[in-house]
Amino acid sequence: MKQNSTFITAVILSVLFSATAICQSQNISPELRSLVEAERAFAKYSVDNGQREAFLQFFADDGVNFVPQPANTKEALNKRPPTPKPPPFTLNWQPIFGDISAAGDLGFTTGPYTLADNSSAKRPTQHGMFFSVWKKQADKNWKVVADFGISTPEAVAPLTTAFVPATHSFPPSVKNDPAALLEIETDYGKAVKVGGLREAYTKYLSNDVREYAPDVMPVIGKEVYLNIIGNPNAIIDYLPLHADIAASGDLGYIYGSYDARIKKGYYLRVWRKKIDGQFEIAAEVFNWLPDEKKTIQPRPEDIASIDGIIKAFYEVISGPAGQPRQWDRDRTLYVPGVRFIALSSKVKASTMDHDQYVKVSNDAMVKNGFFEEEIHRVTNHFGNVAQVFSIYQEKLKLDGDIIGRGVNSIQLYFDGTRWWISAVTWQSESADNPIPKEYLRSQ
User: Which terminus of the chain is more exposed, N or C, with fewer CB under 10 A?
Assistant: First the structure.
């Protein structure tokens, strides 16, 4: 159905598994080592005592995590009951990369996490990446001041992966001035508005930048990230909410909200000063708010007949590159809770609701252009129930070459006033599973 390919994000993670990882861990400065040890102690406390208790123990009084908005962690957790024994789930993680200021008072760590279900249901373990900013307190202990976790579709690295420190030279120390950091952030925001995302990233990203976003694998490296930006001319408005910088003035962080027109959410950005005194982005973490769905009335011609609803089914997702898809109209075709099931050539099923389908399909459709056309249909009817085998072909341009074919199995029913689609299952044609000739006759 509706584009067979899944949204793909390039991943460069070889640095995590390089042959030098173990020996590099021997080159960690004493200050950074103390930070890494604090992170490991944090993770162990979570495994031994529960997530709530660990966060209360290791967060600063003003520390925040993103849920999805930045919220004071201790204030929120103190309103919750203690973790029961045994705990219903276990959150564990491992720092595998990090950096620290020249003053040794501010730093960050990042790495993979696992969330294991301890209940009788034994749901599959969830995977993701954490990103924590730490600040040394007046008592010389490290505490978390900002923490961001993003889910990933699979494990990024084993929890046994060795820690690798960032490698760079420290610039001369300067006065720590959060206002100066906000000025850099403002300049960056202006660069995005004036020249677009690619131009701003080219200027401000560090060569080893880390980019994290929900439900995709992390990206490491400026060149890699520049090659996969979905919309290089995207305009994004940033609203900083908090900034802090090390006493040495070489490492700082900012978090706030952003509006990218098609997505809104919150971000955490780490700025690092280069040896020449210029700031660069060392890492960015984003989340996004649930889409604001517009409720619109269905078009009468879309729901009055099987022909009308199948015609709309294909129209809403088809269009040239750069054209938004008609997801609000699309939503009017289905019953609440509709399920989309994509079958791979190896008969592996991926089940999605409408929001999930939109999420994995929209970016590639808008970026590359996508047209799906019905070329034949087989309909079976009983009472108010209908089952449609709709044979389709795919193109990137309306007059372009056919890039794929397949069969949509569409279940429908008539409620006395209109037609509804209740489920869709599709499978693409392959060399060992060709579409039967009788399904390729013109209508």
Answer: C
Could you read off the pLDDT of 73-89 as tens digits, one per residue?
Answer: 999 999 999 999 899 99
Assign residue 4 a region (left: φ > 0; alpha: ψ between -120 and 50; beta: otherwise). Answer: alpha
What is the chain's mean pLDDT, rounded? 89
In the chain, the amino acid numbered 216 is V
Query: Side-chain half-sphere of 362: how many Cα atoms within 13 Å?
Result: 16
Q: What CA–CA distance (Å, rounded) separates 245 from 191?
A: 22
Pair of tokens at residue 165? 């420190």
Is residue 68 reached through a cis peptide bond, with omega within 30 degrees of 0 on the bond before it?
yes
Fold annotation for 14-286? Nuclear Transport Factor 2; Chain: A, (3.10.450)
Q: Calculate the alpha carbon distances from 81 to 45, 48, 51, 77, 249 in Å.
A: 17, 17, 12, 8, 40
- Dihedral sign for Cα atoms in the order 421, 425, 431, 432: negative
Q: Is 302 helix (H, G, I), strand (E, B) or coil?
A: helix
**Does this chain's domain 14-286 share its CATH topology with 300-440?**
yes
Give the pLDDT confidence score for residue 15 in this predicted structure.
43
Question: How much is the pLDDT for 424?
Answer: 96
Question: 3-state class of 299 per DSSP?
Answer: coil
pTM over 0.70: no
User: What is the chain's alpha carbon radius of gyration, rounded to the nearest angstrom?
Assistant: 25
In 118-218, where do the E strands start and end? 126-136, 142-152, 164-165, 205-212
pLDDT bin (cut points 50, 70, 90) of residue 1 is: low
Going from N- to C-terminal start, the domains of the chain cover: 14-286, 300-440
Given a cut of 70, whether residue 317 has pLDDT beyond it is yes
**Would you identify the CATH topology of the domain 300-440?**
Nuclear Transport Factor 2; Chain: A, (3.10.450)
